[in-house]
Design goal:
heterodimer, A: 4 strands, B: alpha+beta, 2 domains, 7 strands
């Protein structure tokens, strides 16, 4: 292919002739993601107040090592480094965190909001060199589907947690916390099951889906959720944080977990 | 009738500047109407490319108040007319004159893409049978009018000028239409990863936002193609499976 003349000179960082408030959206993404990262890191490192009655905070589920009375493998493992803060969430958070970091929606959002690459459409960038996702480290974004597999397992576990949240001393009851946990798994499920990688794996990979009616149906369902992937991503992110906050406040005695039924 | 100011880029081969024109504006007018009025009454030599005035030919692409849009589909009632409306050519392509740019890069890049290669006909009379649900996906891509607004807004081309390494969103849509076609047998995945440069796309979705045909360029074309590249080159389990199953596409 022949070379191309350089077009009109590109503007400097932040330069644009756009008249709208183009900086509002990346700023909102920056603040929203930063707030969640700060809260989830703080909450995940507390190692306390993550259980209340039948409720388990989603930041700590499944509890692999932690409270010997509930954790799958007992208390703090002997091999755990003494210099590292111990919290059951450490063993879990990397998986859903990796799923969100490598998610196609979040990638586009945080490249703009955190790297200004670009700050917004038709707005000048701060750097002249650009390598995209072709080379290290961003080429690692291609492992997204492996985080998807882990996220699907976690959804099943969170669904079990939500079911447990309706059982109080062997009796089925509906409390505010039960609904908080249920909504959490519904939102997370809608986000995870609308994943672009899942859409590809269940049917997008095929050019003749009509020959596989089950996969065609699955593809249509995932596509339906995928159409609102951004919305599910934000709603589920907020609600995960809120669910942990609710359980934490109940455990600390700040909130009363009202019974509805 | 009310009047509005249009700040139009005038110049040739990259040198030039903005010039203000005032003209009357009325209900129902689009930007291209105002340009034609200015051309008829004040600037007979104003160069502007247009054809159908119906948003179907893709000729009148320009940047209106900094956003890539079709002039024929941008109603003046949607713009703040208390300030001058800026009009400039697409910045990603070399300027020819005034609002006209040289978009031949797109046609040269298109020639690099493997053409449609249908499988053998299903019947002796040389015909095929295709299920409607199998072509629905690619029919969305056939709506493209080649206005090249998506190419213009893409920062990989616009800011970084990687014309030799990246074919751009329009041509990923074109590739997707071929690659996902139920009759097609050609393999374009190695080229997508290599010379077509799909890895440069960082999913900003700017191309989707400016598409006048509302094609979901990122979600339905680019990301599915990226996933096919992942299948072939970045998924160790699938790669291992292909080694043991003896699949040719390793």
């Amino acid at each position: 292919m022949g070379s191309i003349d350089v077009p009109l000179k590109a503007g400097g960082f932040g330069q644009t002739r756009r008249r709208d408030l183009w900086w509002v959206h990346p700023l909102a993404v920056f603040l929203g993601l930063s707030a969640f990262i700060v809260y989830s890191t703080w909450a995940g490192l507390q190692g306390a107040h993550y259980r209340f009655g039948p409720y388990l905070s989603p930041l700590y589920s499944p509890e692999l090592w932690g409270d010997p009375a509930h954790a799958l493998f007992g208390g703090k493992p002997s091999w755990f480094p003494s210099w590292l803060i111990f919290s059951p969430a450490i063993f879990i958070l990397w998986a859903p965190g990796g799923f969100r970091v490598t998610c196609y929606y979040y990638r586009g959002a945080y490249y703009k909001a955190f790297w200004a690459d670009p700050p917004s459409c038709t707005v000048g960038e701060p750097r002249k060199v650009y390598r995209g996702e072709r080379s290290f480290p961003l080429i690692l974004q291609n492992i997204h589907r492996y985080f998807l597999y882990l996220a699907l397992v976690i959804i099943v576990i969170l669904a079990h947690d939500a079911w447990d949240g309706f059982w109080f001393d062997g009796h089925f009851q509906v409390h505010v916390g039960s609904l908080v946990l249920l909504l959490n798994v519904l939102l997370l499920g809608s986000y995870t099951l609308g994943c672009h990688s899942l859409r590809h794996l269940v049917g997008g990979i095929m050019d003749r889906l009509s020959r596989s009616p089950v996969r065609k149906k699955a593809y249509d369902c995932v596509s339906c959720l995928n159409a609102h992937h951004m919305r599910w991503a934000w709603f589920s992110l907020f609600w995960v944080g809120f669910t942990d906050f609710y359980v934490r406040m109940c455990s600390m005695g700040v909130f009363t977990d009202w019974r509805i039924l | 009738m009310a009047e509005a100011t249009f700040r139009i880029w005038r110049g040739e081969k990259g040198s030039g500047g903005f010039r203000d024109y005032r003209t009357e504006v009325g209900p129902g007018m689009v930007v291209l109407d105002a340009i034609h009025e200015i051309q008829a009454t004040q600037a007979n030599d104003l160069a502007v490319r247009w054809n159908c005035k119906a948003g179907k030919c893709g000729s009148c692409s320009a940047e209106i108040n900094g956003s890539p849009r079709l002039m024929c589909m941008t109603r003046l009632s949607t713009l703040p007319l208390d300030k001058p409306v800026t009009l400039e050519p697409m910045r990603t392509f070399p300027p020819v004159k005034d609002l006209v740019t040289d978009v031949s890069f797109n046609y040269r890049a298109k020639k690099k893409i493997k053409p449609f290669q249908p499988r053998k006909p299903d019947r002796p009379d040389g015909t095929w049978t295709i299920a409607q649900q199998d072509v629905e996906r690619v029919q969305e891509f056939h709506k493209c009018i080649e206005c090249f607004l998506c190419q213009d807004v893409c920062h990989v081309l616009r800011e970084h000028h990687l014309y030799e390494q990246f074919i751009g969103p329009r041509l990923f849509v074109y590739t997707a239409a071929l690659e996902m076609h139920p009759l097609d047998t050609a393999d374009r995945v190695p080229e997508l990863r290599g010379p077509d440069g799909i890895g440069f796309c960082n999913i900003t979705k700017c191309c989707t936002k400016v598409c006048p045909e509302e094609i979901h360029i990122t979600d339905n074309a680019i990301i599915p193609l990226k996933e096919r590249v992942v299948d072939r080159f970045y998924d160790p389990v699938k790669r291992l499976f292909r080694v043991f199953s003896g699949s040719a596409r390793r």
